[in-house]
Amino acid sequence: MRNLTDLVIVGAGPAGLMAAKTAAEMGLKVTVIEKKKEISKIRRACCAQFVMDNGYENEFLQIQDGKIMFTRNNFSVPYTGRLVNVKNSFYYSPSGHKIHIAHSDGRPLAIKFDKGQLLQNIMEECEKLGVEFRTETLAYGGTDLGNSVKLELKSKEKTSTIEAKKLIIAEGVNAKLTDIFGLNNGRSLFGTPFVLLYTIEKTCDFEPESWIQYYGSVYHPFAEIIVGPTLEGTDTIELTIMGNKNILPETFFENIIKNSPLKNNFKHSQIIDKKGCSLKSYSSLRKPYLGNVISIGDSAAHIEVIVQGAIMCGYHAAKAVYEELNERNGFEQYTSWWNDAFDFNRTEFNNFISLYGSLAMRPKYTDAELDYMFSLLQGKTLCGIFSQFETPKIVWRSILEHKEQIQSEQPVLFDKISKLYSLNLSA
After folding, report:
1. Which part of the chain is the FAD/NAD(P)-binding domain (predicted)?
2. Is there a domain that residue 335 lies in?
3. Do residues 396 and 358 touch, judged by C-beta distance below 8 A?
4. Host domain of residue 397
């Protein structure tokens, strides 16, 4: 007799764990496959702040009493770790002109948290509910058999199989298993950025409780660098640097800390941690399921849904599986929610790609042009918002409030902006 479980989930990140917790609460027999040995140990460079914009991803988060509450989706997850408010967002030009974004009432744009602790908290809930975990196990292949799904597994050089009525793929952005099950067919691959995240102590003169982006060739030839807060104190920061397979992120590190305008900020600094990752930049899956298989979170997204989006994906995917097992169209219900919840699905995709890159001003604009544009907003505080989709609109619209001045003082720059603006902000 076949040992057939209700649901197998591949990936024990926030999406996979939330799916396991929710499915087990509904009485399903759940097995989670995870290639790491320690689920709560984070070695990948990743986002670890909750965005507090009202309505972000159709949600209004509240954090209190040891819980992250998703008030619109009507669920919560436990969290017992530390929290740090991110109250400001700054964008610096090469010469130090800055654009400031914040809420007028001082409430945070985002809240930094300990992702490892969050995963530990959710995993403990799963274990109480009887979820089976198979760690140090790689799902390297599989087949949809029509009435069930069979997965091929490898653990410590031993191979095995597991069979389930439904499969949730929550493997992350590189979407290898998603490809094996045919869900990547027709999906566009835009590139594979590489990211390094350095945790650095004994820094000085960075604005506390702030997310800071630095633009210009004095820092990086084709992208911004990002400085963010940590949970370790005001003299410790996280430095995020992007690159690609031809120009790796570490290529830029020495220049940033020794030769850039930030060199004095790093004069006595020490690296205490370093994490990295590569991210396959796929177009989003508008239909994230096929047969008995559904791909959720970053596996189905353009780059990242970030942690709060991943948790929502896990919650709704588990409910979808429960509906499917009761012969209702749960995967279609999930797809409808998925396409409505995320900006990269709601926006026409070509416009989204243009918009997403519209604040990544290098190499579109020279350092002198960046200095001029940022100087137009010096001393102002723009309406507080953290969304990576809405912030570029706010910044550009604020810059273009000065379009007559730009046209008069910088006609070449004005022509360049006019051409790029019509592409980037047509959404």
Report:
1. 6-184
2. yes
3. yes
4. 353-424
